[in-house]
Amino acid sequence: MYAIVENNEITKLISYPKSIVIGDVRYPAKIFQVWSKSEKEAIGIYEVVYDNSNFKDEKWYINTNQSYAFADGTVTASYGTATPKAHADTLWTQQDSDDGDLPSDKEVGDVKVEGLKTQLIRTIKQQASGLLAPTDWYVVKASEVSDYSVPTNIATYRASVRTKSNEMETAITNAVDTPALETLYTYTEQEDGSVTRPLGEFPQEVI
């Protein structure tokens, strides 16, 4: 992206090379490819430099729109301070009811907007269910056939999935804020060379 700078002010942003008029002169699109940086800047065309230092993972944060500034001969596109997404549910309040905003199918105290915790825990439950599904038939058979028992390795695996699911859900519930949730999911390299996250992983295979 480029910016047109006139009198030290950005007057136009150019997302792709095209013919442009600066002053009384029309310049062809090819100048963006064939002219040097200094030649373009001499007529007020500056390539935008991106500063992503404030940009954060959109899974956890709401980023601002980019703003553009010209200083010290450089046009910079940067983000403002990102806002953490709500980690806890937002509930319908008595004030919502008093203001007439409470839907007819909701009551004060019901969930208005789900927070990250609710969303993440639902995902954990879905993942656990998906891991258990291929071995559900063992349990069904054991409930229907009196002389059949779930093999020990299958029972152990299913128990380990449920145990890990409970551990993950507890860790998510106990996270005090959005950065703490992000930390649970952040992979880092350990001294032994393994790459792990505090939340851990589900057992993937029956042993």
Q: Overview of this structure, please?
A:
With 207 residues, the chain is α+β, with helices and mostly antiparallel strands. The protein has three domains: 82 residues, no CATH class; 29 residues, no CATH class; 93 residues. 35% of the residues lie in helices and 23% in strands. It is built from seven helices and 13 strands. The strands form five sheets. A five-stranded mixed beta sheet has the order 2-1-5-8-7. It starts with a strand and ends in an 11-residue tail after the last strand. The relative contact order is 0.10.
TL;DR?
The protein is of the alpha+beta class and 207 residues long.
Portion in beta strands: 15-25%
Q: How many angstroms does the end-to-end distance come to? A: 54 Å
The number of helical runs is 7
Helix content, binned percent:
25-40%
Keywords:
single chain, alpha+beta, 3 domains, 7 helices
Topology diagram in text:
Elements lengths: L1 E5 L2 E6 L5 E3 L2 E3 L3 H4 L2 H6 L2 E7 L9 E2 L4 E5 L2 E5 L4 E2 L5 E2 L2 H5 L12 E3 L2 H17 L3 H9 L7 H23 L3 H8 L2 E2 L5 E2 L11
Parallel strand pairs: 5-8
Antiparallel strand pairs: 1-2, 1-5, 3-4, 6-9, 7-8, 10-11, 12-13
Helix pairs in contact: 4-6
